[in-house]
């Protein structure tokens, strides 16, 4: 075999004219909202990199030129102690419990609860992620919640 050519269209440069004409053909936060957590983590890593390059973290043991394990430990501490908590990435997977409790109470008051039968309702109430990965917008199956917990 003389040569092999592998063309991967989703590896097109982000400044190509083709992608500017057809933005739906690329991964972005509009057509792929599930990438939002990764995007936020990437933004955090970029910000840390910029600040380290500017020398803003030298007082914390992270010099502009990272070349030892101690520097990596200091970077890890800055990343997990300062940067990642500020991004609040877990909120993309969490519910607003106050809102859900209010919604549950409102719906429970407007329905006549069924009389409990000998066998309790089957099912496991689980968090349903928000399809757009908005903060504190995950939810639960409210009908199942009412069947499980709104009984005489």
Automatic annotation (TrEMBL):
Family matches, as InterPro entries: AGL/Gdb1, AGL_glucanoTrfase, GH
Xref: Pfam families: hDGE_amylase
Domain called Glycogen debranching enzyme glucanotransferase: residue spans: 1-111
Listed name of the protein: Glycogen debranching enzyme glucanotransferase domain-containing protein
Organism listed in the record: Timema podura
